[in-house]
From TrEMBL:
This is Aminotransferase class I/classII large domain-containing protein. It comes from Oceanospirillum multiglobuliferum. InterPro entries: Aminotransferase_I/II_large (IPR004839), Class-I_PLP-dep_aminotransf (IPR050859), PyrdxlP-dep_Trfase (IPR015424), PyrdxlP-dep_Trfase_major (IPR015421), PyrdxlP-dep_Trfase_small (IPR015422). GO terms for biological process: alpha-amino acid metabolic process. It comes from the Bacteria.
Amino acid sequence: MTPKLSRYATRLPSSPVREILSVSQQPGMISFAGGLPDASVMPTLPVSDSYANVMQYGTSDGEGILKQNLVKWLASEGFECSAEYVMITSGSQQGLDLVSRLLVDEGSEVIVEDPTYLAMLQLLKGLGAKLLPINLGENGVDLESLEQQLKNSQARMIYLIPTFQNPTGYCYTEAERIAVAELIDRYQVTLVEDDPYRVLNFDGVFTRPICHYLKTATWVYLGSFSKMLWPGLRTGFMVAHPALFPWLMRSKQAADLHSNRLGQAIIAEYLQQGLLADHVAKLQAHYKEKRDYMQTLLKTHLPATVRWRLPSGGMFFWLELDQDTRQVLVKGIESGVVVLPGTAFAVEKSADHTLRLSFSQMKPADMEEGIKRLAKVLAQLQA
C-alpha cells in the first residue's frame, strides 16, 4: 500500500550532505564534505552526582541556570538579552524548524542569501515557501538587491547567516550589519539570524549580531553549543523578540515538550565554572591552524584557475572552479576523495562551479593527501 502523504512530505527534499556522508565511510576515502567539529578538542564529558535531579520532565523553555549563564556569555559577546526570552532547543536546527513553521505557510515569501544553508533550504522547500534570493558574493551582501526584495514583496521573514556563513564563510562587516538592520526596520520583516559559528573567529573580525541593531522589527536569534562543546548533546538556543516568544513557546511544547535536561545540566555546569572562555581560545587556535594549513595546501597544489577567499572564521572554504563540480564529485569518489558541490546550497543563481571544503575534522596528513587527490581530479577533467 502506498501511504497518502502530506504536501509537506512530498515537497521535502533529501539532504545531499547526509547522502554523501555515507560514501565518506568507505575504507580509504578522504572526505571534505561534512562540517563536523573536531572531537580531539572537545572537553572531557563531566560526570556529576548533581545530575540526578534532571530525571523528571522539565520546563519547555529550558533550565533556568543554563539560560542565566547563557545570557551572561551573550552579553560578553556584545548581545544584551533577557533570560525571559531565551529558549533552549534540541540543537539550533530545531530552532529553525520552530520559527519557520510559525512564520511560513505554503506560498509565503522568505528572503534568503544565495547561496545559503542547505538544511534550511530543505525545511523551507518542504513548507512550500517562495524563496526570494539576495546575492552573497566576494563583495558581501548585495544591499541593493536586498532592498528591492523587501520593497517588492510581502516577505514574512528574512533568513541570514551573517557570521562565517555556511557555505561561503563570508562574515558581514559592521557597516553591512547596520545597513541590513536599517532596511529590516524600514520594511518591518522578521529577521531570523542563524549564528552557530561565531566562536570560531580566527582573525578577530567584527561579529556583533544584526539583532542588536534592530529598533522596531521583530527578530529571532539562533545559536548552538555544538560547535564549541559537545554536538552529541544536541543543545542549541533561541533568543526571541517579546512579541514572538509566546508563539515559539507553543511551538516548542507541541514539538517535544522540552529539550534534553541532562545535556542542559552538563553545559550549565561548564559555563558556571567559567571554563568556556579558555576553551573557546583553544578552539580558535586549533581551527585557525587547520585553516591556515588548508590555505597553504590549496595554494601549493590546486591550479591557478581555482579561486577562493580566505575565511576569517568558521569551518569552510568556498572554491570557484572552471569545471562543473558535479563531475568533480563523481570523479573524486572514484579517486578516493569526497567533496561537496555548491549546487546543494544554491537558491536561484548557478553554483555548478563551486565547492565547499571543510577543514574542521581533517588530520593534517589526510588533508594534504585529499587536496593532492582533488588536484589530480581537476587535472584529469581539464585534459
